[in-house]
Amino acid sequence: MYDNVRQELNFCVRAPETNPGETVCVSGNCDGLGNWTLDEVVPLERKGNEDVWTGTVQIVTTEAKTVAYRYVICMILEDPKRRVIVRRWETCLEPRSVGPNRVDGQLDRFGLIDEGNYEVQNGWMTTETLVQMKLYNNPIHIWKRRYANRKFRVRVTPVDLKRHDSESIADEDSTLDTGDTKCGTWPIVELAVMNETECEFVLQQQFGRAYNPDEFMVFQAQVLFPDMIAYVVDFYVDDPNSCNSDVPEHFGYCYVLPSVFEQTTGTSIIPITGLKHQPVGQLTVEYLVIRPARECRCDLLVSYSKHWKSGRKTLDVGHRGSGSSFSKTQHCANIRENTITSLRNAADHGADFVEFDVQLSKDLVPIIYHDFHVCISTKKKYSGNDSELLEVPVQDLTLAQLQGLKVGASETK
What we know:
This protein is mainly beta. The protein is built from four helices and 27 strands. The protein has helices at residues 145-148, 169-173, 340-348, 399-403; strands at residues 4-14, 23-28, 42-43, 45-46, 52-62, 68-77, 83-90, 96-97, 107-109, 120-122, 129-135, 140-142, 152-160, 188-193, 202-203, 209-210, 217-223, 229-237, 249-256, 265-274, 279-290, 317-319, 353-355, 358-360, 366-368, 373-379, 387-393. The strands form six sheets. Strands 11, 12, 13, 14, 15, 16, 17, 18, 19, 20 and 21 form an eleven-stranded antiparallel sheet that branches. Strands 2, 3, 6, 7, 8 and 10 form a six-stranded antiparallel sheet that branches. The protein has a four-stranded mixed sheet with strand order 4-5-1-9, with no helix packed on it. Strand 22 (317-319), helix 3 and strand 23 (353-355) form a beta-alpha-beta unit. The longest helix is centred in the last third of the chain and has 9 residues, at 340-348. It is globular.
């Protein structure tokens, strides 16, 4: 038997990645550190205006137990009950430990353990919903001549519809001229642009980002109650007559209501309203709603979910084996897709992996087939050799029925 030992641990970590509204916490393998449980993480305190966070924790362990811990960047919400949202966390396969080489209160660097690689990942979607709004293929059309041919900026801001204070949406409109919004508070809206330098999600600037019709912009909102969150999209242009060149002119906005996101994916066309409440253009937005896996319980102990080293080579993956064999393009595989021959051919030609689709037949037998439907050719009555196609879901056919079909390509599907 080992005696219990009471220890006082001092933590100190530098985390320049911390945004406004975020808190650096610590979690570990003992009661005082929450036993890797998300709801029991221990918040640290920021040291003045620096990016250094410190804290002292009293723990009780046995002499034989090595105390392990990780740092976590969270948002701690108190409305109406305490919720902990993981924004980023250290995901090295081996966590930090309290051992003979650790100096109590030493300055750690978030994401770096033993001067190794920077290993940090985003949190999980177990409580919050992600709403993505995608702008691409020239989605913004401005009708007002004054702004039609000018470069402008776009910013998306969440609007909480369930607030019970005296502030109304009309009051909020008066703040849009300066772009004065609470950056980094909950809910969060981040922006990524599909290019080499801006492909990771970051917080928006005060007046948004410059809009280019040929770019692919993705605004991502992280929310707890998507049915009660709307979004205001603001549009700005540089004002050549303003003495303050850093403050652009706010010329229009539109509201994207939660009722727009009825489906998992979709497209909506929304009118853009000018400051005098007249229509000045329209916005076409494609959206994607990713809902949480609430039944999944995650902790901070293991980090197997995503482990890809930056120096790892690109992988060659065989699509449906050696490629699609039913395509309208002339560059299609000469071996039938999703067959053993196609999979072996891909491996023989150096593929690192092969990709194929697995579905269940009506009698619950796994099969390899790409489409969710098969088209069965039937001859038309009194029409000679003419035939028509009957579309049948794969899940409605047994394995024997599927094996009895003669597979071929259709020019009409």
